[in-house]
Each structure stands twice: as C-alpha cells, then as structure tokens.
Write a structure and sequence with these properties.
Length: 500
C-alpha cells in the first residue's frame, strides 16, 4: 500500500529542520516489518521497499532495533559482531542503499547501540575475558537479579568463574571501567557514524556500570515504580544499576558520536534520569508509557517528564503490550493525540499507526520473557500473511483481515489517517504543555495557540475553549460539537483546537 502515494506537501524540508527536537521517530522491529526475500523474516530490502509508506506517513526518522549479527537469544539484543549486519537482514550494500534512500526522502536513520552487554558468542567473551565482569564462585558475590528473572550471575564452565549478566545468561555484561572496552565501543560508534547513521538509541543505559564494591541491593522500602518481575521489585535497585560511573561510559559515547544525537533507554523513573541527560540528547519517558489510562496519572507523568527537560515521549515499543491492548482499543485514537501533541521527540512503534493489538505468545514461545505479542508482523494488506512475507512468517500476524495499512490508507476516517494528520499538524504546534483545569476524566493542556482536550471517560464531556478557538483535528468525524463557550467531546475522543 501507499507505495507510490505522494508524501505530505511540507515533507522533506520540514523534516530536516528539527533533529531530534520535535521529531517523530518510527520504531522498526526489523524482524517483523517487511520480508523482502520470502524467508518469513523481515529484512533491510523489505524496510527499504516500505520507505514510500513512511514518507507518506510523514515520520522524520526510523529507529532500527538491532540489525547486527546475533545468535538471537534476545532477538538481536545479544550482539556477536557490532559492525556486521545479520545475514538474514541483508548485506552491507543493503544497509547503504537503505540509508541513502531514506536520506533522499528526508528520513533519518537511528541505530540501536547495544553496548551494556554482548552475546556470549561474541569472540570477546573468550578472547578478552577482561572485557567482562567476573567473580569467583561457587556462590554469587551478591544478591543482584537479572531483569528477566533469576540471579544476575551464571557459572562459566570454561573458566569455572561466575560472570555478570543484567539480562539473559546469554548476554554477559561488559566492564565499562576497562578503558579498552570504552575504546572498542567508541570505535563502533564512529564506524556507524561513518556509514551515514544520524542517531543512536542506546540500550540499557542504566545497566552500563554497577557498584564497584558489588554491594547487595538492599530490600525495597517501596516497590520500583515501573513494571518488572516481582522478585526484583522486592529490592531497592541502587547497586545493580544506576551507578554514577555510568557518566564515564556515556562521556565516551558522546565524544565518539560528536553531535549525532543519542537517545537513551534508561529504565528508571523519570525523576532519576537527570544525570543521564548531561550526556544524552533525550531519554525515554517510561513514566508515560506505564501510566494508567487515567487523567490524573497521565497528567502527573507528563508533568514529571516535562520537568526533566529532554525526554522522548513513548507509549509503546517492542518490549511492552501495545497501546490498544494496554489502554484499550477504544482509546487508541485519543492516545495517538496524546503522544503526538506533547512536543519534544515522539517515538512511534510500528503498527501503532494502524491501531494494532497484541497477539498471544507464539507456541512454542519465541521470546522467553513473553514479548511475542507486541512483536507480531506489520499488517500491510488483508491477505493471510498480511503482506509481510510471501513465505511462512516467523511469527503469525494478528488480524490483517480486519486491520491493515492498505485499507486504512484508503479510508479517510481510519486510525492511520488520524496519525498522518497528527504528524502533519504537530509541525504547527509550539510551546511546552501547560495543563488547564477541566472536568473529571478529561485531560486538557495548552501549547501556545493550541489546546488539546482528551476525554478519557465513557460519556460526553464539555471542555472550555478560549474565545475564538476552533477545532482543527478530532479523533473521528463528528466526535466533537461546539457548545456555548466550549466543545463537547464524545467519550474516548479527543480534539485539538487553535486560536486564530
Ligand atoms: C532493552 C531492549 O528494548 C530489550 O528488548 C532487550 O531485551 C533489553 N534491553 C536487553 O538488551
């Protein structure tokens, strides 16, 4: 679909003007986006073939989740060669063609920098054991837990020692205190900048360096405010992550990247990300992603995040249930308005623009941590495999017959066309969001001349408007009506209004 559709008029020039501030970055999970060769796995030529769609949608940049050589214990977040493209995704030439074509269309390319850990099959693990963090066994030196459950220490049968891993045992943590690790990773960054990359999303930033004394994490007085396995919530994760020495690691990456933007995945409440922003251009606002669909919760998350200055807004990604599944299908349109009217960089996960829902886990599961549901393939058309592949998809699509890009592009009233209009409209909206008092179950904020009003309730709600304000966008035709001094908005709907 949309191949051949003309992009929005303002397109390339408007896009190149802002980077990353205000940009819409579209997250591509390469394995599930578009297969180009019929092997059932998405790839770089597939992504390239869909650039016309992304240009039509109006995104400023694409973030590619890891495309490097990997044994796939964590689907690419276990890298065995940071400079090599995974053969199932394509060749160096495919990468260069993708970057060149994206640039021609005014779309920037952001790579995932997975530098906190490597694959256990990375040659370094055997050739350079000093690049990793070790302890003598047989008992672990502390109570640290891996994010995917179980102890963060595993025995290495070869050396008889224990190695540290913040995630799966197949992902040993690097020792960023080692200057040679820092130099090696700086080289990786320079390599990709030299290949034309425009930015990096840095994985697991808060895990890059841990407490030098390997002290136990003390028991938690209050549960960690973001979702994580129960056993981790019992601990106050102050020594196994978030060390002040992460600054040393980030300074290295910053220097290597020059002025190429760095966006950090810092899995901490936003109140704790400030020190990271000294080196990063932005960090994801996970407080918003994990807020309940409730006006007060959302408003509080937005206020905390805006106060940090430098967040990237995100409401879904390849790790968590999709918006429609988490916040409810009835709220997908209003959630789109929220994500795209907050200002600052916004990350949009593939398929969200179609209102996609999660599938169940694959049988047998592909991801051991239960994330198959949000990684189901893009639904391009209504065919059995959703136009994702001509072969057998590595994960089955959820419901291409009832939701797909082709039919939504042709339908002016679709979720897809709402996203497109929002992306175009956001270019006109300036100023920080300032909350305006409004009836219960509504969230209303001003940004300069624009007022955004979201009705989270089931029934209609009336929101006051400044004099002269008119509706410039509504989540569906007829979802809002002018009334005396304001606008009446249907339940689960939202509007953007403008004065003048
Ligand atoms: C965060 C990534 O988004 C996730 O998919 C991955 O499993 C972990 N970091 C470990 O790399």
């Amino acid at each position: 679909m949309a191949r051949g559709l003309e992009p929005a008029a303002s397109a390339a020039a408007a896009r190149s003007a802002r980077w990353p501030g205000g940009a819409v970055v579209y997250e591509i999970y390469p394995r599930s986006f578009q297969d180009g060769d019929g092997d059932g796995i998405g790839d770089l030529p597939g992504i390239r073939s869909r650039l016309p769609y992304l240009e039509w949608l109006g995104v400023d940049a694409i973030w590619l989740a890891p495309i490097y050589a990997s044994p796939l214990a964590d689907y690419g977040y276990d890298v065995s060669d940071h400079r090599a493209i995974a053969p199932e995704y394509g060749t160096d030439r495919d990468f260069d063609l993708l970057v060149a074509d994206a640039h021609d269309r005014g779309i920037r390319v952001v790579l995932d920098l997975v530098v906190s850990h490597t694959s256990i099959e990375h040659p370094w693990f055997r050739e350079r054991p000093d690049f990793y963090v070790w302890a003598d066994g047989p008992e672990p030196p502390n109570n640290w837990l891996a994010s995917f459950g179980g102890p963060a220490w595993s025995p290495d049968p070869v050396s008889g020692r224990l190695y540290l891993h913040s995630f799966y045992p197949e992902q040993p943590d690097l020792d960023w205190r080692n200057p040679e690790v820092r130099a090696a990773m700086a080289g990786v960054v320079r390599h990709w900048v030299g290949r034309g990359v425009d930015g990096f999303r840095i994985d697991a930033v808060d895990r890059m360096v841990k407490d030098a004394g390997l002290r136990d994490d003390p028991p938690a007085e209050a549960p960690f405010p973001l979702p994580m396995p129960e056993e981790l919530r019992k601990l106050d994760l102050i020594h196994s992550r978030d060390s002040p020495e992460i600054a040393l690691a980030l300074a290295t990456l910053r220097e290597a990247a020059g002025d190429v933007p760095l966006i950090g995945e810092v899995y901490l409440p936003v109140a704790r990300i400030l020190p990271y922003l000294e080196y990063l251009d932005a960090a994801f606002a996970f407080d918003l992603l994990h807020a309940d669909w409730d006006a007060e919760h959302l408003a509080a998350a937005i206020e905390r995040s805006s106060a940090a200055g430098g967040v990237a807004w995100v409401t879904s990604n390849h790790d968590f249930p999709r918006v429609a599944t988490r916040w409810g299908e009835e709220n997908t349109r209003a959630a789109a308005v929220l994500l795209l009217t907050l200002g600052d960089t916004a990350f949009l996960y593939q398929g969200e623009e179609l209102g996609m829902v999660d599938g169940g886990p694959a049988d047998p599961p592909r991801d051991r941590f239960g994330r198959d549901g949000c990684r189901r393939p893009m639904q391009w058309d209504g065919s059995h495999a959703g136009g994702f592949t001509a072969g057998d998809p590595w994960l089955a699509p959820v419901d291409p017959e009832s939701r797909n890009a082709d039919s939504e592009a042709a339908d002016e009233g679709s979720v897809l066309n709402l996203f497109r209009r929002l992306i175009e409209l956001r270019r006109e909206i300036d100023g920080a969001p300032v909350r305006v008092s409004s009836p219960a179950n509504t969230l209303v904020f001003d940004r300069g001349r624009h007022r955004v009003a979201i009705n989270l309730g089931d029934g209609p709600a009336t929101v006051a408007l400044p004099e002269g304000a008119t509706v410039v966008l509504e989540t569906a035709a007829g979802a809002a009506r002018a009334v005396t001094d304001g606008v009446e908005i249907d339940g689960h709907a939202a509007v953007v209004t403008r004065i003048g």
